[in-house]
């Protein structure tokens, strides 16, 4: 872990100052240095500037700072112009002062690559060994990435992520090659040579395709990182490097055969266009970003609303069902009409906590979680079915529940399930929550599995690849809110424990994806333990976001966010932007608190 890459390119261009005979060039989307040195020594630097802090390296690699490493890899991105047959060009050399011998060098010829090194171990005067890799074609005006690995008698060359070419020679690379008073030369051996371009390590598609994690730590010369400078005119966007394309600014210019393959950047719209010879074609346009959310509609409900479910019934419209706390007149369903939600249907509920919309084939259902008994002392939650004839929801099935908080509907292997969260039974918070399975023969939901929960508030179902998961938010076990919430995985026809996560009055789980990454956010509502001293504030605590670690096969903490008795998370995206909004309910002093929208 102490091995760090040594960047020869940055040593040639210290502090972004170009040496004589170098110029910055961009071609095929990659920035690089074109080497045309008339003074070769300008492209050199002492080896002592590269081999420093040698005590950090294992002794088998560096004996002293004046020794070249015995085992190493060289990584180069370059673009070679066509060269005459039988001509050799050096990519780099390491040479001692006042000596014509190449201590270490890499040169290319038509269809070949040669690695050279000097050894004094077998002869008094020294001997130069050449390792040749045949069938390596670089002179095609294209970018190529070379990775040369050296270890003893073994030499391996990889070109553009292809299968490595391995060569074993009789003479091993020397274990003690002195670099005293030696210098590196880029693109030459202290002589005037031809032209080629060395690429920036991060430029274009050459990097990142083979997984060379090592090069991620290479420093990139400042001159290759510069942004375009502000143009003094309204014509051409000036870059600090030469470019083979023209970009016009300002108002829309003409697009004729003369402007074909030229670009126009519309500053006001932040859009880039390409002329095809007759019209400007959009290449890149700025995506609209959500800068803020403004109030759209105040929805008047009959009592304190505990939850809202928004859904669409095909060919009918958009609806919103509110779970209202007080029994008379119950909960309401609103329909989107003339640009706003308007009352549509009222349903008798008993301290309703939430609604869940789901479908089975062409059947449309809406389930309510009732928290208290009805006027006859019966405690049940109800599944309603959409009546196409009456154009409203009608009672379909009653299911016995115990202070139900939430329903979750999901499909596994073609079968429909409905899970209810039972919060408590009387004063007992440690009771079973139930998962029901749809029986197509009877047309009813039947008990499939019970799972022990503690004052549970929420179920969250999600899938990752072929696997199905169900997370429960446990809130209170009768003495403490500092308890474990659990994630279950579907195996062999039932849910089995996958992972337990410590939570503090967990009220909600929210799963979301950003690219290929999977996140799981928990809303912690309050911290209370009857056996512990009271905290300064029960309600101002961290809610946490976890990320799935594929290697560890578990969710690991990704980020903490301070929330105030958080009851719900909701993830959404606008274009390429990802957002997470938390519903804060109480800060220990007032219910009038801000809820927050976070942007990733």
CATH class of one domain: Mainly Beta
Number of strands: 42
CATH architecture of one domain: Sandwich
Strand line-up across the major sheet: 1-2-15-5-10-11-12
Largest sheet: 7 strands, antiparallel
- Kindly report the oligomeric state of this protein: single chain
Describe this structure in words.
The strands form 10 sheets. Strands 1-2-15-5-10-11-12 form a 7-stranded antiparallel β-sheet, with no helix packed on it. Strands 3-14-6-7-8-9 form a 6-stranded antiparallel β-sheet. The chain has a 4-stranded mixed β-sheet with strand order 16-17-18-19, with no helix packed on it. The chain has 600 residues and is an all-beta fold. The relative contact order is 0.06. 1% of the residues lie in helices and 51% in strands. Among the domains are: 1-207, Sandwich (Jelly Rolls); 304-401. Strand 22 and strand 23 form a beta hairpin. The longest helix is centred in the N-terminal third of the chain and has 5 residues, at 8-12. The chain is elongated, with a radius of gyration of 35 Å. It has 1 helix and 42 strands.
């Amino acid at each position: 872990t102490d091995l760090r890459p040594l960047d020869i390119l940055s040593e040639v261009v210290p502090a972004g100052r170009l040496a004589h005979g170098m110029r910055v060039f961009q071609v095929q989307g990659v920035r690089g240095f074109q080497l045309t040195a008339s003074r070769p020594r300008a492209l050199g630097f002492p080896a002592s500037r590269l081999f420093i802090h040698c005590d950090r390296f294992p002794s088998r690699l560096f004996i002293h700072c004046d020794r070249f490493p015995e085992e190493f890899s060289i990584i180069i991105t370059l673009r070679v112009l066509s060269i005459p047959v039988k001509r050799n060009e050096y990519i780099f050399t390491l040479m001692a002062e006042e000596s014509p011998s190449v201590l270490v060098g890499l040169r290319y010829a038509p269809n070949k690559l040669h690695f050279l090194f000097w050894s004094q171990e077998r002869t008094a005067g020294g001997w130069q060994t050449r390792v040749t890799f045949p069938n390596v074609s670089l002179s095609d005006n294209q970018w190529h990435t070379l990775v040369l690995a050296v270890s003893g008698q073994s030499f391996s060359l990889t070109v553009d992520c292809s299968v490595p070419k391995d060569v074993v020679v009789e003479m091993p690379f020397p274990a003690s090659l002195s670099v005293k008073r030696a210098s590196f030369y880029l693109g030459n051996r202290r002589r005037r040579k031809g032209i080629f371009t060395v690429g920036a390590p991060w430029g274009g598609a050459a990097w990142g395709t083979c997984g060379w994690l090592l090069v991620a730590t290479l420093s990139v010369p400042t001159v290759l990182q510069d942004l375009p400078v502000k143009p003094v005119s309204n014509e051409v966007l000036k870059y600090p490097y030469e470019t083979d394309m023209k970009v016009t600014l300002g108002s829309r210019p003409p697009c004729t055969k003369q402007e074909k393959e030229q670009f126009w950047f519309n500053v006001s719209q932040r859009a880039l266009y390409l002329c095809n010879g007759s019209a400007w074609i959009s290449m890149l346009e700025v995506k609209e970003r959500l800068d803020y959310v403004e109030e759209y509609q105040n929805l008047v409900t009959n009592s304190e609303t505990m939850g809202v479910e928004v859904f669409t019934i095909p060919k009918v419209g958009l609806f919103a069902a509110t779970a209202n706390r007080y029994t008379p007149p119950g909960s309401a369903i609103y329909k989107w009409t003339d640009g706003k939600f308007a009352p549509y249907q009222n349903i008798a509920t008993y301290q309703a906590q939430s609604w869940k919309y789901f479908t089975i084939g062409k059947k449309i259902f809406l389930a309510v979680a009732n928290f208290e008994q009805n006027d006859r002392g019966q405690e049940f939650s109800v599944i309603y079915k959409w009546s196409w004839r009456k154009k409203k929801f009608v009672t379909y099935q009653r299911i016995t529940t115990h202070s139900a908080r939430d329903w979750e509907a999901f499909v596994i292997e073609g079968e429909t399930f409905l899970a209810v969260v039972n919060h408590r039974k009387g004063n007992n918070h440690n009771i079973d929550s139930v998962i029901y399975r749809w029986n197509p023969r009877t047309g009813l939901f039947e008990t499939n599995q019970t799972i022990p929960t503690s004052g549970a508030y929420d179920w969250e179902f999600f899938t990752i690849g072929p696997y199905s998961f169900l997370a429960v938010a446990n809130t209170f076990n009768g003495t403490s809110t500092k308890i474990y919430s659990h994630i279950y995985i579907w195996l062999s026809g039932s849910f089995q424990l996958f992972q337990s996560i410590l939570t503090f009055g967990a009220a909600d789980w929210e799963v979301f994806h950003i690219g290929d990454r999977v996140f799981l956010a928990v809303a912690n509502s309050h911290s209370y333990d009857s056996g512990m001293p009271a905290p300064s504030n029960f309600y101002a605590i961290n809610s946490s976001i976890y990320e799935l670690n594929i290697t560890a096969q578990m969710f690991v903490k990704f980020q903490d966010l301070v929330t105030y008795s958080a009851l719900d998370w909701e993830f959404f995206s606008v274009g390429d932007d990802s957002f997470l909004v938390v519903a804060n309910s109480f800060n220990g002093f007032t219910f009038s608190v801000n809820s927050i929208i976070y942007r990733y």
